[in-house]
Amino acid sequence: MGRPRKALLDRERIGATALELVDEKGDFSVPEVARRLGVQTASVYHHVDGRAGVIELLRERITDAIDPGTLSDVPWDTALERWARSYRAAFAAHPRTIPMLMTSPIRAPRVLAQYESVAGLLSEAGFAPSLVLPVITGLDNIVLGSALDMSAPDTMWEVSEGAEAPRLAAAQAATSPSRADQAFDLTLAGFLGHCRDLLRTGPHQAP
């Protein structure tokens, strides 16, 4: 019998299967990934370093959907805004991965390469080294929080008859279906405005 043209198991299939599980139920285990692929758990461990390794495959798959070209050939603040929007769209497609990825160290080389580009952009713009990670972390918080918000119910504040919240009810009644997008635009604009102020006023050091 000839050898199969394609390997039965590889990192690509492991990552894709783990992402399917997380999209479906919010988590995965390595044995579950193995069962869905029809292989032994030990076979999965042959390709990845346990659960942490699979998490990095998830991170790579989602980050690959972020357009790195958004960081090129434009002023730093325009580049950050474009990158943030692409970043948000990538994670909005898989919101159940966010709690897992936000609480795990980033190790995947392809993902680190994108953050290296952002760090370089900020450094070249004039931000001090002590401010680069606070700015990146702040942008992460805005983007990932908004990506989660995009999967939330349209009505987040249910004001029942017994609740005394007339102004909240009126505000909710006046809110458009694009609330999540409006909130993201508002928060991102404020964040970038503050970053511009940091560069204008100096000193460019984290407090």
Named at the architecture level, the CATH assignment of the largest domain is Orthogonal Bundle
* Biggest pleated-sheet summary: none
Task: Bin the helical content.
Answer: 55-70%
CATH topology of the largest domain: Tetracycline Repressor, domain 2
Q: Class by helix and strand content? A: mainly alpha
Low-confidence stretches: none
Rg (CA only): 21 Å
**Amino- and carboxy-terminal Cα gap:** 68 Å
Note the beta-strand portion.
under 5%
The CATH class of the largest domain is identified as Mainly Alpha
General shape = flat
Number of domains: 2
Order of helices and strands: HHHHHHHHHH
Overall mean pLDDT: 90
Number of alpha- plus pi-helical segments: 10
CATH superfamily of the largest domain: Tetracycline Repressor, domain 2
Q: Could you give the count of β-strands?
A: 0
Organism: Streptomyces ochraceiscleroticus
DNA-binding region: 29-48
InterPro entries: Homeodomain-like_sf, HTH_TetR, Repressor_TetR_C, Tet_transcr_reg_TetR-rel_C_sf
Domain HTH tetR-type: 8-66
Can you describe this structure?
With 207 residues, the protein is an all-alpha fold. The protein folds into 2 domains: 56 residues, Arc Repressor Mutant, subunit A, CATH 1.10.10; 135 residues, Tetracycline Repressor, domain 2, CATH 1.10.357.10. It has 10 helices and no strands. It is flat. It starts with 10 loop residues before the first helix and ends in a 6-residue tail after the last helix. The mean pLDDT is 90.
